[in-house]
């Protein structure tokens, strides 16, 4: 059976779609963990577990950087890459980061056979992820734009030095939204059987005073009323 690369592309901002090249596979789960710091930097860790029904050569995981983003937004081009195959850690993972016009692609050289279960964890460092207005700091983010296959279990957690005031999760019209749970200042979103080609969006805000040490972006005026208007519409 011909081997090929399994391509899994997650995007910050609706730039790099999730797709696959001629491989019979299932996405068992996707877990995203976003930790936001007081200086408006963040760590984004995504864990993907999938099983293959064909032989394969490796995985590609992409992260976009284009679109309407805060001033000074950056992705560190040297993410941490970890891989497990059939519950065994792969030591000295062979991977490379390729800079594209609209983001970065991590190419993981991880061949395998039909029946394998693979877990890939990519940890990114981000700068200036939130929009900093006079009254609030806003997260308006699409961590996943679409998938070539359904995701059986989707989970996303937003944590940090200080909890968001409110967080909303959207998957588009005509589809049941995921369950949003709040524990202290942390948020967890869980959804079963996310259909293929379905994007997800996170919309949240913090009080601006929580980010006093963050670099000013030059945004003037208040934003909270508009934020609430968007979520009420």
UniProtKB/TrEMBL annotation:
<dbReference type="Pfam" id="PF09972">
    <property type="entry name" value="DUF2207"/>
</dbReference>
<protein>
    <submittedName>
        <fullName>DUF2207 domain-containing protein</fullName>
    </submittedName>
</protein>
<dbReference type="InterPro" id="IPR018702">
    <property type="entry name" value="DUF2207"/>
</dbReference>
<feature type="domain" description="DUF2207">
    <location>
        <begin position="26"/>
        <end position="206"/>
    </location>
</feature>
<keyword id="KW-0732">Signal</keyword>
<feature type="signal peptide">
    <location>
        <begin position="1"/>
        <end position="22"/>
    </location>
</feature>
């Amino acid at each position: 059976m011909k081997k090929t690369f399994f391509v899994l592309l997650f995007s910050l901002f609706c730039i790099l779609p999730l797709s696959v090249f001629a491989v019979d596979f299932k996405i068992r789960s996707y877990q995203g963990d976003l930790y936001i710091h007081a200086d408006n930097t963040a760590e984004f860790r995504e864990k993907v577990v999938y099983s293959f029904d064909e032989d394969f050569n490796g995985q590609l995981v992409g992260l976009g950087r284009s679109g309407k983003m805060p001033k000074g937004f950056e992705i560190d081009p040297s993410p941490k890459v970890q891989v497990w195959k059939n519950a065994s850690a792969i030591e000295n993972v062979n991977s490379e980061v390729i800079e594209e016009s609209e983001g970065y692609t991590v190419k993981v050289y991880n061949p395998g056979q039909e029946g394998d279960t693979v877990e890939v964890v990519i940890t990114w460092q981000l700068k200036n992820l939130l929009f900093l207005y006079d009254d609030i700091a806003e997260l308006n983010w699409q961590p996943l734009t679409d998938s070539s296959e359904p995701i059986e279990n989707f989970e996303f957690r937003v944590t940090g030095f200080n909890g968001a005031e409110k967080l909303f999760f959207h998957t588009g019209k005509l589809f049941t939204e995921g369950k949003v749970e709040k524990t202290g200042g942390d948020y967890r979103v869980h959804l079963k059987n996310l259909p293929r080609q379905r994007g997800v969006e996170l919309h949240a805000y913090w009080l601006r005073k929580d980010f006093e040490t963050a670099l000013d972006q030059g945004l003037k005026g208040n934003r909270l009323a508009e934020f609430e208007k968007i979520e009420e519409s």
